[in-house]
Each structure stands twice: as C-alpha cells, then as structure tokens.
Amino acid sequence: MASEKPQIGWYGLGSMGRPMAENLQRHLANNHERPLIYSNRTLSSGETLKALGAVPAAEFTDLVKRCDIVFTMIPNDDVLQRLVKLAIAGSSELSNKIFVDCSTVHPDTIKKLSSDLAKHEAVLLSAPVFGGPSVAGTGGLVFAISGLESACLAVEKYITNVMGRKLINCGENASNASLLKIGGNIITISLMEAVGEAQVFAEKTGLGTEAMEQLITESFGAIAGGYSKRLTSGIYAPPLDTRPGFGISLAIKDAKHALSMGREHDFKLPGLELADKHMKAARDYGGECLDSSAMYGILRQQGNLSFWNENSRQGGEYGETKDTKDHAGAV
Ligand SMILES: NC(=O)c1ccc[n+]([C@@H]2O[C@H](COP(=O)([O-])OP(=O)(O)OC[C@H]3O[C@@H](n4cnc5c(N)ncnc54)[C@H](OP(=O)(O)O)[C@@H]3O)[C@@H](O)[C@H]2O)c1
C-alpha cells in the first residue's frame, strides 16, 4: 500500500476534473504535503492548477511512474481502458499503486480493469461522483467508493471535505460504486426530462418560465432548480467555443449503460428510454456542444418552438438549416 505521505497524481482536467484537482491541490498545499502531479490530453488546461503549486507531467505513463495514488477523471470506458493498458505496458513498477477512477463507467469495465491491475499487485477503486462542475468547484460533490478496504481508507482523506461533502462506501466489490452511479443517473437524466417538459408547459401556456423556475427550486430543491436554470439561462446549448457543463454524449453514455443493465437483468426503464431518445435527437440536431439537459430543445420543437431559446446560442453546426424545417418529425 502507499506510504504514509503518498505522492498523489491526477489525470483528466475537463469540466469536472479541473475543479476537483484544484481543490485537492489546495488541500495538499494547506497540509504541507507533496504537490499534486497532473496530466491531461491538453496539458495547457492545467495552467490554473499549476498556479496553485501542482506539477505537470507530459505523459500519463510518467504520472503513473511518479505517483502512489493516481486519480482519473475522463469521459468514458474506452479512455479508461486505454489508460490502464498504458500503465500496465509502461516501464514502471505498479505494485502497491492505487488507481482511483472518478469517471462514470460501466461496472464490468471496473471489474475487468481491477482484475488486470491486480495481476500487477495494483488496486483499482471506483469513486464516481454526483454533482456538476459548480458543485465540484465548491468541494460539495457526493462520492461513492468501492474496492479494497485498505485502499479506500488510504484515499478517503483526499476525498471527504476536500473534493466532496459525502462519501458513500459501497464495499469491497470494486464495481459497486459504478453501479450506484449508473443507477443514480437514471434519476438525474429523468429529472432533466421532467424539468424540460414543465418549462415547455410554462412557456406554451403563457404562465412563464420564471414562476415555474421558482416553484421547481422551492418545491423540488436546488438540484431540480439548477436543471431549470440550465434551460432558462440558455446553457443547455452553450456557445460553440465553450465546453458544456455535462456534455450530452456523456449523459447518452450513462443512459446506455443503465439500459444495457436493464436488458441484462430483465427490467425496463421506460422514462430513461424516452429521455435517451430525446438526448440523441438533440445531438443529431445541435451537435456535440450541448449540455445533457438539451433534450429540452427537442421538447421545444415538439411544441412548435425553436430548439434554441432566447438565451441559448442561436443555431450552430447543424441548427440553422434544420431549424427552418418542420419540427413535428424531429424525434
Ligand atoms: N460534467 C458533469 O456534470 C459530470 C457529473 C458527474 C460525473 N461526470 C462524469 O465524469 C467524467 C468526466 O466528465 P467531464 O464533464 O469532466 O468531461 P469533459 O469535460 O468532457 O472532460 C473529459 C476529460 O477527459 C479528457 N479526454 C477526453 N478524451 C480523451 C482521450 N481520448 N484520451 C485522453 N483523455 C481524454 C479530456 O481532455 P481534454 O481536456 O484534452 O479534452 C478532459 O480532461 C465523465 O465520465 C462524466 O460522465 C460528469
């Protein structure tokens, strides 16, 4: 297992990874521990992290070599598989290293990679998170964690009250935390669909989205209120040169994992199926630069409104031409 003051590493500085890594680096600096070593496909995304005292590593394999505990926050299963393959193929001794994946991936991926790493006496923990980039910035994420108990104990001091406000321990079966995350996202995605429908209702009936947003926030809580704000502020379809808060393809990947488990275990997720269909239609229409809540654009189209609202970007890669078409058959 890692030494008492392990060297911590971080790979993945996207919407979630960067604020999480920054909180971790602040914690390490405040506690006079060795600075975080970080890497990312686009290394320049680490400039603010570097300004906090963290140290860049050009390659993932170099990061692995220099660190006892390596956090990853990357988009999907393929990227995680590739990173673990690189770590195993790299020249460094993996024995006693702990890999902590905070991304949302399929439980089978965790199971397989955990077994691959165990052959090299390394441990993989699954530690996915609940909450978006703004919550990550405040250190208020909810984490789930699973895997070897001693490894969980070694990393939890870098999570609780550092990057997250709550850590749910799902036990020694490494894939359990991933299972919880996929299950939790059934609620996240379905809630976005419900909030989108309520806001189309408010606009089409003349009630207005402001009153509806107040109700959603006061009555259904800050998370539902936040989803409503993504719609009314227009960030469901952000400017093309920005990174969406929770990219639509990430949410489609999460829905795919949940739906595949439904098929595998013989149960149905009809609400999620509908939201998935709307997310895919939104991506077909507006491209990749959309937030997961962009099913709202399709719900708008089904009510003969434009995909774009007054605060979103207007058109985009595909939108300008398609917006002039009859929207009835969009889904
Ligand atoms: N956003 C949310 O609200 C949210 C909430 C909970 C969980 N999650 C999950 O957390 C994970 C990260 O989400 P995110 O929103 O931070 O994603 P993101 O903004 O798209 O960032 C993805 C990160 O992975 C890197 N990356 C992408 N493709 C890669 C590749 N082929 N090889 C190596 N690195 C690659 C990106 O590098 P570049 O900087 O070079 O692009 C970036 O650092 C996902 O699994 C997501 O489902 C997201």
Description:
This protein has 331 residues and is α/β, with parallel strands linked by helices. It is 50% helix and 10% strand. The protein folds into 2 domains: 8-172, NAD(P)-binding Rossmann-like Domain (Rossmann fold, 3-Layer(aba) Sandwich), CATH 3.40.50; 179-303, N-(1-d-carboxylethyl)-l-norvaline Dehydrogenase, domain 2. The protein has helices at residues 17-30, 47-51, 60-66, 77-89, 107-118, 133-138, 149-156, 176-205, 209-220, 222-232, 248-265, 270-286, 295-302, 319-322; strands at residues 8-11, 37-39, 55-56, 69-72, 98-101, 123-126, 129-130, 141-145, 164-169. Strands 3-2-1-4-5-6 form a 6-stranded parallel sheet, with helices on both faces. Strands 7-8-9 form a 3-stranded mixed sheet. Strand 2 (37-39), helix 2 (47-51) and strand 3 form a beta-alpha-beta unit. The site of NADP nicotinamide-adenine-dinucleotide phosphate has 25 residues, from helix 11.
Question: Percent range for helical residues?
Answer: 40-55%
- Strand percentage, roughly? 5-15%
- Radius of gyration from the alpha-carbon trace, in angstroms: 21 Å
Based on CA inertia axes, which overall geometry fits?
globular
The CATH topology of the largest domain is Rossmann fold
Count of helical stretches:
14
Bound molecules: NADP nicotinamide-adenine-dinucleotide phosphate
Strand order of the largest sheet: 3-2-1-4-5-6
CATH class of the largest domain: Alpha Beta
Strand/helix succession:
EHEHEHEHEHEEHEHEHHHHHHH
Number of domains: 2
Task: Give the class from helix and strand content and strand pairing.
Answer: alpha/beta
| Biggest beta-sheet profile | 6 strands, parallel
Distance N to C terminus: 52 Å
Which spans of ≥5 residues are poorly predicted at pLDDT below 50? Answer: 319-331
Work out the number of β strands: 9
**Average of the residue pLDDT scores:** 94
**For the record, what is the CATH homologous superfamily label of the largest domain?**
NAD(P)-binding Rossmann-like Domain
